[in-house]
Amino acid sequence: MMSPVTPPVPPLLEVTDLARSYRLPRERLFSAPPRIEALRGVSLRMENGRSLGVVGESGSGKSTLARLVMALDKPDAGQVKVLGQDLHRLAPKALRGARRDFQMVFQDPYGSLDPRQRVARIVAEPLQALRLGSRAEQREQAAQALAEVGLRSSDLDKYPHEFSGGQRQRIAIARALITRPRLIVADEPVSALDVSVQAQVLNLLQDLQQQHGLGYLLISHDLAVVQQLCDEVVVLYQGQIVERGAPAQLFSDARHPYTRALVAAVPRIAPGRARARRRERAAASAAIV
Predict the structure, then answer these.
(1) Quick one: pLDDT at residue 196?
(2) Integer distance in angstroms from the first to the last C-alpha of the chain?
(3) HSE-CB for 127 with a 13 A CA cutoff
(4) Which of 195, 202, 205 lies closest to 174, judged by CA?
């Protein structure tokens, strides 16, 4: 007797030949409005529990890709599949249910949280949208999510203005985490934070990935952030993927001129010069005293 064939496990995220263009304002009264191609034939794949970084300068199509993966916008062509489901072919009710498996962390920790709402309502918002649990259960899960990002249950009744930027981003991460998603799309999640706080938030994201087996699609222009968090990187240039590979290999031996330009733009201070600057600062401080 033959044993049943186990169906293959679908990838966490599969993007195929994705294209999106936008119509710009009309330049002349009787001319056709111009269009800009934000994405052209973008394809990528992520497995469960892995992290994929998408890097490129402003206008390269990174945020457009994030919006299409989150089904916040519709592509002109191509597919976005999460766990085998083609998001842009789902009925609205089915799409709402599928959102339990993918959530998003936005760039701005100040603008992404409603200043009129308490933290309890902000964090529990995905549960309310999916109609999961009673109010008491939602509050309990919100407290648990806050604890996982290093905040206290007493913070539930506070407002966003009572927190620092890093704490606000932790609240945003708790909101994304509360449905126990498989995929989190993080669009420049630390770019608005101080450098020291960036490191704390990145360490938190790594810890959460290990605890919950999360997959991250990390949108960033910061190569150091991508190198710390991601298993693979794709480089977007004018809406197309021009290079991909492991971070260490890609940033040490980039093939495409655009990737080499990105790597060259990362600020570096030579060790000898750094020591000289420290001596100069020490001498200046001593002179002031």
Answers:
(1) 83
(2) 89
(3) 23
(4) 205
Q: How far is CA 97 from the centre of its chain?
A: 21
pLDDT at 167 over 70: yes
d(CA 218, CA 205): 11
Residue pLDDT, tens place only, 31-44: 777 888 999 999 99
- Is pLDDT of 280 > 70? no
The two three-digit tokens of residue 136, written as one number:
């008491």
- Contact partners, residue 231, CB within 8 Å, separation at least 6: 50, 51, 52, 246, 247
Position 120 scores a pLDDT of 96
The total number of residues written for the chain in this structure: 289
Strand-pair category, 77-82 with 85-86: antiparallel
Task: List own/partner pairs for 114-119 with CB under 8 A and 24 or more apart.
Answer: 114/160, 115/159, 115/160, 115/161, 116/159, 117/159, 117/160, 118/156, 118/157, 118/158, 118/159, 119/146, 119/155, 119/156, 119/157, 119/158, 119/159, 119/160, 119/171
Instruction: Give the pairing of strands 240-245 and 232-237.
Output: antiparallel
**Residues in contact with 236: Cβ distance below 8 Å, sequence separation at least 6, in sequence order:** 42, 54, 55, 56, 60, 61, 62, 65, 242
User: CA torsion, points 141, 184, 122, 63, in degrees to nearest 10?
Assistant: 180
The answer to whether residues 73 and 244 touch, using CB atoms and an 8 Å cutoff, is no
Average pLDDT over residues 15-29: 87
